[in-house]
Amino acid sequence: MIAVYLLLLLSAAGILFFGLMGHKEDIGKLNTRINAVSLVITIGLAITVFEQGTILSSGKAFLIDSFNVYLIVLTAFVGFTTSLFSAPYMAHEKEIGKLTDRRLKLYYSMYQGFMLAMYLVLTTNNMGIMWVSMEGATLATVLLVSLYRTPESIEAAWKYFILCGVGIAQALFGTILLYYAASQIGDSENALLWTVLHEHATQLNPDILEIAFVFLLIGYGTKIGLVPLHNWLPDAHSEGPTPMSAVLSGLLLNDALYAVVRNKMLVDGATQSHIAGYLMMGFGLTSFLVAALFLHRQKDIKRLFSYSSIEHMGLMTFAFGIGAPLATFAALLHMTVHSLVKSAIFVTVGYASQLAGTQKMSGIRGLIKTQPKVGWGLLIGTVAIAGFPPFGVFTSEFLVLLATMHNYPWLTPLLLLGIGIAFAGLFRHIQPMVFGEKPEGQSAIKANLIPVMVHLGLALWLGLAIPGFLSDWFSQATLLISGSSL
Amino acid sequence: MNIESQDLYTQAILSMSALVGLTSFLMLGQGRLLRLIFVFAVQGLLLTLTTSMAAFSLDNPHLYISAVLTFALKVVFIPWMLRKEVLTMNMQRDVEALKNNTAVMLGGASLMVFSYYVLQPIINTSSMIMLNAIAVSLSVVLLGLLLMISHRQAIAHVVGFMSIENGLFFAAIVATNGMPMVVELGVAFDVLVAAVLFGIFFLHIRTSIDSLDVDMMNKLHEVDR
Is ipTM strictly over 0.85? Predict the structure, then answer.
């Protein structure tokens, strides 16, 4: 349990330290080191949970079980690899005069702030604190979206702030209703603790929990980027610095979904019906289809991949909504591979746009000829995210399809249609960017693609063979979430 | 339900709900920014009163802390910050022409009815009074949303945003006698940071579009044009 405190303290110290010293030379390396230490701590934590099972801290404030521990490791891992990429990237941005010392301080400080908020969302046992840290994640990243201070980025940040702020307020209303329902069965001091709620889930008033879940889904759903609450997502992803897009897509969306699933477990226990699942399926499928269509009409490369994130988050929400063990297993796997692949893509996209000097896809051409590593990285990443075998996304999407065929066969065509449309939408844009002649004057830049290769390599590994301990883990989490094993 | 047969605390809570709901409607139809901010401060004050009343009658000292926090944030700090912003931008004389004011007010009224309808199942678990209090909180949240939709000034959006927070806070106080202390402190911290961030944003927006009219922020589109 000390590991959790250490993890949180480390990030908190990072906020303060970078707030004062974030402009120094080589500070990016320190950021990487902090994230590396966090990663080591989380792996230690994971091993402990693997051996001893669920850990509840002495004050019941923190809970680590099989569901959140792997997300914690994933968060630390993506945080670490993105910081590897961010150090030279931000140094380059400062060199070309896009950033000042003060903004660099803000950037590094808030990078840690965001990591702290993410760790808190995942580790806390208190549904209220979960809400507070989710809002904290918005507050930490909102100034990073407008880091470049262009009119577009300020507009994007304002939209992000207002939409997510208002959205997440609905989740607070849901949490209050949850608390109201829980305080009726006594013990109001501990009534927001997830463990207590889960234990007494069957006693909670089903009517109130149904209402509460609608608010919780809308609230956290805004952060997941579910259609029609997704408007902020492409803007915030496209206008902020690229490392931010990578962590937003790879981590924030996952954690918001995590919050919804935690709440769904309570609501399912109380209502003994499938109402929460139906709501999630509806929202998820709509997001999946709408985002797939939107992919076709994008001009900005980061916006393109933001819509792809919405599409995948929709699919995961749908899969969790089905609720069957196989679907839950697939959704957990999909969360992992999507985070890995999508953050790798955003890293390559960052290099590609630095190379071409623009984010407009019409201006990015001939990547393979200019710098083969970046070009192939982008192409392979896109192949992976589009769901081609042998990458992990294929496996998880295939499992989702299987589960759908088993439980709701008439929805399968819709899913296949969405996957097809998304595939076409991605490749019509990616093809001319990676192949073709290179424009004059475009030359290779210094790029560190090791994080990308590691991410894609892991996604490939998960596609070929899921290692035993990981599948055990997913099965345990599946058992916890869906109530029955595979 | 006969209101006179209720105890004094319940009666007070009911009147407070009514007043808080009323301030939301007042804000909805207000085109002048300074008055809007004033009504917002009044709403904050009503909230402070409700919280202290709850603290007193339930003998719950931690609610006094919430009351002080609410007072400092919602009655003093945020209105002061917004007022300063209006004065610097020299907007105190501007009257925002609200489009479809009648429709907006009617919409607001129907949102209130809708809140009662949505929360009807709560009656089964508790009293009519609780329904009133929670339904008013929900309608304050929804009216805050409507306020943000119908106004164009960034300051009005912040007022709407914060009045949504007010609605939630009111729900937490009357329905559950306040959330656990640690959560409440966390929420207050978030509100404070949000308020400071809004202040920074006003500066950015002003330097970027030389106005606080959010309709002028229209560079980003869902699809290519």
Answer: yes
Q: How far is Cα A364 from Cα A442, in angstroms, rounded to an integer?
A: 10
pLDDT in tens, A294-347: 999 999 999 999 999 999 999 999 999 999 999 999 999 999 999 999 999 999
For residue A228, is the peptide bond before it cis, meaning its omega torsion is within 30 degrees of 0?
yes
Which residues 138-197 on chain B approach chain A with CB closer than 8 angstroms? 138, 141, 145, 148, 154, 157, 161, 164-165, 167-168, 171-172, 175-177, 179-180, 182-183, 186-187, 189-190, 193-194, 197
Q: Is the peptide bond before A390 cis (omega within 30 degrees of 0)?
A: yes
Q: Residue A129 is nearest to which of B182, B193, B208, comparing CB atoms?
A: B182
Asked if A428 has any chain B CB less than 8 Å from its own CB, the reply is no
For residue B59, with 0-12 CB atoms within 10 Å meaning exposed, 13-18 middle and 19 or more buried, which class applies? exposed
Phi (first) and psi of residue A134, to 5 degrees = -65, -45
∠ CA(B210), CA(B215), CA(B220), 5° rounding?
95
Q: Which residues of A touch B136 (CB under 8 A)?
A: none
Kindly report the number of other CB atoms within 10 A of residue A101's CB atom.
11
* Phi, psi for A360 (deg, rounded to 5): -70, 130
Tens of pLDDT, residues A360-379: 999 899 899 999 999 999 99
Which of A276, A325, A308 minimizes the C-alpha distance to A393? A308
